[in-house]
Amino acid sequence: MSEATLQKDAMRVLKETSRTFYIPIKLLKPTLRKTVGSAYLCLRAIDEIEDHEQMDSSKKTALLRATAELLREGFDASAYAALLDGAEDSLPEVTRRLADWLAVCPPDLYDNVRDVTAIMADGMAKWVERDFQIETKEDLDDYTYYVAGLVGVMLSDIWEAYDGTVTDRELAIGYGRGLQAVNMLRNQDEDAERGVRFLPEGWTREDLFDYAKANLAMADEYMKSIQTKNIILFCKIPLALAKKTLSAMERGEEKMKRDEVNETVEAILNETD
Questions:
Q1: What pTM does this model have?
Q2: In the chain, N or C terminus with fewer CB closer than 10 Å?
Q3: Does 140 have pLDDT greater than 90?
Q4: Which are the contacts of 170, defined by CB distance < 8 A and separation ≥ 6?
Q5: Contacts (Cβ under 8 Å, ≥6 apart) of 218
């Protein structure tokens, strides 16, 4: 498969996997689009293993740790295919094709994307093994670091490699945590049905709202150090959607309406133009 075909395929799978991130990634300039698209798909490949509803915990843990080890060793596509043997039919395309998403990553950031994916896989394995039992705020911070904060760190590395944009990595972690906390609030009932409760002991839903708001405030601070319009546009869209989703849930709605999503994106495009 040619590089151009593979890149086009990557954008197709990205759109099928997450419309929320497909929109800002598609708006990035070619080099950034290729890099961020590759990174997102690699991390989503791992995430789909963690979220797999039919796979038992021991199998998930083993698969995540073995994948992390392969990534640290440089990644061998045939070895990865062997790891998935017997489970590939139940795994989504984005997970089965991890080797392809690594292949479309620009060489100068390949090691970065591969290493972060490995760290995330190990972190997710730890929390699958613990059955996602969040007991303290420190536990919550640890879990949200592995599943979302790391994404912020990797994006900061990508911005710096692209044009020298320097951002605070702690604020980047807060940005990721904020987005993840909004997802947790939105999926709370669904998670409860499968026996998962992402709330420290003694916390209420209101406490999780406060946690989300505090971390999204860090995202606002993160944005202040970015001058590149293309990067600003990318960062603004998921942040605005997260804030509006939070507001919708506080009004008792499950999520934003599709028209409101479109209007929000359009307004950001106009103000960043």
A1: 0.92
A2: C
A3: yes
A4: 218
A5: 170, 171, 173, 174, 175, 177, 178
